[in-house]
Amino acid sequence: GAGVSQTPSNKVTEKGKYVELRCDPISGHTALYWYRQSLGQGPEFLIYFQGTGAADDSGLPNDRFFAVRPEGSVSTLKIQRTERGDSAVYLCASSLTVGQSGELFFGEGSRLTVL
Amino acid sequence: GQQLNQSPQSMFIQEGEDVSMNCTSSSIFNTWLWYKQDPGEGPVLLIALYKAGELTSNGRLTAQFGITRKDSFLNISASIPSDVGIYFCAGANAGGTSYGKLTFGQGTILTVHP
User: Fold this and answer.
1) pLDDT tens-place string over residues A28-73
2) What counts of helices (H) and strands (E) characterise chain A?
3) Cα–Cα distance between A25 and A91 in angstroms, integer?
4) Where is B6: in which H helix or E strand?
5) For a FRET experiment, which of A51, A88, B58, B75 has its CA 20 to 30 Å from that of B37?
């Protein structure tokens, strides 16, 4: 597609439920990133994939968060036993290669609200 | 962990005025970037800086990578209403598995009055 596509754009769930957020990167981009943005803050790094493998998952806050990218394209961020503090906009980004640091193309984000 | 301090937090200016914002870090980065975010959108890259002391322009935007590698500034000349948005600085250290791990500042909210 023309840009990074994220679904759903909005998700409201109850505390304790399981949530999946999907990211479809720009075609041909090998690197994919997940960031989380809380209200009034800058994005915070969660995890980065190069191809199918997670190259750096040091930003995942705890073991309730998990992400996969089984075929090296679409990625899913999975959150188990959601908590109110998980409420945020989850941004996905992709880049053509890892050669130039920082030139990430972001999607519009998935806004998660945990009641 | 690393933190970026971005200032000012917000700015209210008249159309046509120049704008300056800056970003400082407690530690060194080898890449500095400036992004703009509009409401309901993801951040969009404005300028990327890869060398200490580098001064780069993109239209009305000019950014510099500080020689200490711990700071950067962004200038916008002759502001227009569509410059409204939130501007984020971000630092990165290329190498190994760190390419996509950006550390963002907290943002500068820019309002431009026509």
Assistant:
1) 898 999 999 999 999 999 999 988 988 889 999 999 999 999 999 9
2) 0, 11
3) 11
4) strand B4-7
5) A51
Residue of A nearest to B91 (CA): A102
- Which of B89, B101, B104, B109 has the most A C-beta neighbours within 10 Å, making it the best mutation to test the interface with A? B101
- Across the interface, of A42, A101, A108, the residue whose CB is closest to B106 is A42
Of A104, A114, A111, A95, the C-alpha closest to A31 is A95
Q: How many CB atoms lie within 10 A of CB B27?
A: 13
CA angle B102, B45, A5 (to 5 degrees): 85
For tokens 């005025």, the residue is B17
Q: To probe the interface with B, which of A104, A105, A110 has the most B CB atoms within 10 Å? A: A104
Whether A43 and B106 lie within 8 Å, measured CB to CB: no
In sequence order, what E strands does A1-115 have? Answer: 5-7, 10-13, 19-24, 31-37, 44-50, 53-56, 65-68, 75-79, 88-95, 105-106, 110-114
* pLDDT tens column, B55-87: 999 999 999 999 999 999 999 999 999 999 999
